[in-house]
Design goal:
- The protein is globular.
- The chain is α/β, with parallel strands linked by helices.
- α5 packs across α6.
- The strands form two sheets. Strands 2-3-5-4-7-8-9 form a seven-stranded mixed β-sheet, with helices on both faces.
- The protein has one domain: 3-Layer(aba) Sandwich (Rossmann fold), CATH 3.40.50.
- The protein is built from ten helices and nine strands.
């Protein structure tokens, strides 16, 4: 496996991203980057960790407006998935699978010994994060999903996703910042676009981003379908707090919030909200999203 590591110089002086880097060495020599913010040890008796998981084709920069709001009260850990952000990037599309992403993140939360986790997830952060929670119930206390879903290959995929999957696979042009820009209500400025493009100096670094759409389970015989079905068996009896914070303008995940609220017991009675924004609602309503997370933690006791 050929591994690319984005030069640190690409990440200098990024707008609204003052967070110190932290790194974790995974098996196989891969280096995973994560933001770790919040009260230092001894400064608070709060036991909660907010785990913010990004999706495609973003990185922890997506959570820059949310991290400070949640970190005022709680520890916040925001990893860059392998292939994204400041984390290492295997160079071939076939180096990535749904299961490999699961293995990498499971190793990360175990190595960091994260507990009392409030999962905050969107897009592929939900496909990975919801399975992580289901497969490691003892570590998770709450779940907050914004514009995400755990698919099993049995759902009907919208036309816009099929177009996106074909574009990611075949287009010679894969403009990361323009993709994020087109999926947000707001218009990214030049410095924000530079930040989203920073992890990818050339096309050699984009294999992980190109791989994700084709890894979404879209048929019952998908390699990940059985594992996702088993995760849903856990979510079907999930009594811990489960909150949806979807946006009003995402054509990809529209309706998934209502589906999960009906199916997951822990969603009953929660203060579900609809936020203003496109697919990348963290760009459009980041502080409001973060306040909903803080409120859920304040309103619900720890239930690890």
């Amino acid at each position: 496996m050929k591994i690319h590591r984005t030069p640190d110089s690409r990440f200098q002086n990024l707008k609204d991203y003052p967070f110190a880097p932290n790194y974790l060495e995974l098996q196989g020599g891969l280096r995973l980057h994560y933001v770790d913010e919040g009260p230092a040890d001894g400064e608070t008796d709060d036991p909660n960790t907010v785990l913010m998981m990004h999706g495609e084709p973003s990185w922890s920069y997506l959570y820059r407006f949310m991290i400070p709001v949640c970190a005022e009260k709680h520890r916040v850990v925001a990893p860059d998935l392998i292939g994204f952000g400041k984390s290492d990037k295997p160079g071939a599309i076939h180096d990535y699978s749904y299961q490999s992403h699961m293995d990498w993140m499971a190793e990360a939360i175990e190595s960091l010994d994260l507990r009392n986790i409030t999962l905050v997830c969107q897009d592929w952060g939900s496909l990975i994060g919801l399975r992580l929670a289901a497969e490691n119930e003892e570590r998770f206390s709450r779940i907050v999903v914004g514009n995400g879903m755990l698919l099993t290959g049995q759902q009907r995929m919208p036309k816009v996703f099929k177009i996106w999957r074909g574009f990611a696979r075949w287009s010679p042009w894969f403009p990361i910042s323009k993709i994020v820009d087109s999926g947000s209500f707001k218009k990214l400025d030049d410095e924000e676009r530079r930040a989203y493009d920073a992890p990818f100096p050339s096309s050699r670094y984009k294999a992980g981003a190109r791989a994700f759409p084709r890894l979404v389970p879209t048929s019952p015989d998908d390699p990940a379908a059985d594992a996702c079905l088993k995760a849903w068996e856990v979510l079907d009896r999930w009594q811990k707090p489960f909150l949806t914070t979807f946006s009003n303008g995402d054509p990809i995940t529209r309706g998934a919030d209502k589906y999960m609220r009906k199916r997951i017991p822990g969603a009953e009675g929660q203060n579900h909200v609809t936020l203003k924004g496109g697919h990348f609602l963290q760009e459009d309503s980041g502080p409001e999203f973060a306040k909903a997370v803080n409120q859920l933690i304040a309103d619900t006791p720890d239930t690890p």
